[in-house]
Structure formats: structure tokens, C-alpha cells
TrEMBL record:
Pfam families referenced in this protein's UniProt entry, alphabetically: DUF772 (PF05598)
Superkingdom to which the source organism belongs: Bacteria
Name of the protein this chain belongs to: Transposase InsH N-terminal domain-containing protein
Taxonomic lineage from the root: Bacteria, Pseudomonadati, Pseudomonadota, Betaproteobacteria, Burkholderiales
Record-annotated Transposase InsH N-terminal domain positions: 100-151
InterPro entries: Transposase_InsH_N
Amino acid sequence: METTNKGSRSPLDPHVSKVSLLDVDMNVSKVFAMARKRPITVFRYRSPYAVIVSHDTWVCTTKPSAIVPLRSPLVPLNDAIEHAQQTQAWSFGLTAVFPRLLLEPATIARALMLQVLYSIPTEATLHDQLTFNRAFRWFVGLHGETPVWDSGPFVQDLRTLLEDDRAVELLLELLQRAMPVITSPESDFKLNIALARAWALRHPRLDKRVPSQASHDGRLFLMPHPGPSVA
């Protein structure tokens, strides 16, 4: 039986754009140098396995579909809440808190949704995730080379929004609206229901509407009331 001698392999052509996983294993530095000039597709068992691109190419990508795959649960989640965040009810509900925020209310609300949906333990960790997680950045509206906001103002806005009972109410209604996406078998969410309920329990106007468990109609965060919604 013929054996393969790694040392006898031909030198890697510096002009190719496709390499094998073994090529990467044997020529890591060379492959990375090639990737600074053009994307390099890595094949495993003759099938595409990964693509190596330079940092400059990565951060300059502007097409959302190139950053966030269509199969990502954040895509249908965005579709589920985008219209609601553009309604008059949403804007009116944030009238009181808006002047006290440094960033857009919709951006802060989306960041808080990520914290609940992925069980991110602290505000600092959430800020770190928005520094390098391209899907998270896209979801909150950061594209391309746009730097993440400074930690101080960002954390301040998170806390300011959560201090407003109407803002919390709207945020939890958004989460409830998105439950079909959140509970989909294809999603990778790790929903922290206790954290979302804790936000409501801080406010006397909302605490009695927080269910101890899911209600008969599947509401996890707040029981319904006769007032206006974000629909």
C-alpha cells in the first residue's frame, strides 16, 4: 500500500485561491499571507469547509447576507420585530425615556434582547460580544468598520432604559412577539426567562402581570392588559 509522505508534497502555489485542510496544516503562515490578498477557500474531503479572509476584507463587508447567514435565527428575529419598532405605539411609548438616552432606543432594546436570548451574564460581557460578534453587531445596527460604543455610555443607556416601566413593557412585548422564532428548533437561543421577568418585577406597575410560569396562551413575560400594544 502506498503511503503519503508529507515531506514529498509539492510546494503550495501562492497564487491559488483553494487549498485543502492538509495544506493549511502544513503551511499555516503561507496560507494566512495569501488570505491577506484574496479569500482562501479551505476544502475538506473535496467539499468547502471554511473561508479565510483578511481582517480588512471582513470588516469592510457591507452586505448583511455576507455577515449573517440567512439560516441564522437573528434574521427571522429581526424580521419579527423590525416593523413593531417602527410603529407609532413604539415611538410614543419611549417618549419619556428617549431624552435620557445617548443611543437610539431601538438599538439599546435590541442589545438587551441579545442579553436575554443568549443568557449573557453581564453588561460588560454584552459589550465585549458586540465588539467582535459580527451577527450581534448586525442585529443592533453596527455595520462594517463602525466601532462599538464606549462601554460607559452603552451600559448607562442599558440601565436607563430598564428604569422606565413603559420601555420595559414594550421590550417584553417584543420578546413575546418573537416567541415563534425564539422557540424554533432551528434557533440557538438560550433564553433567560428569569432575567426578563426580573426587569418587570422592578416596576410596581408591571410586577403583578409577571406570571410565575407560562400562561395558558403561552405568555412568558407579562400577562396581557387592555392598553395599546406595539402591533
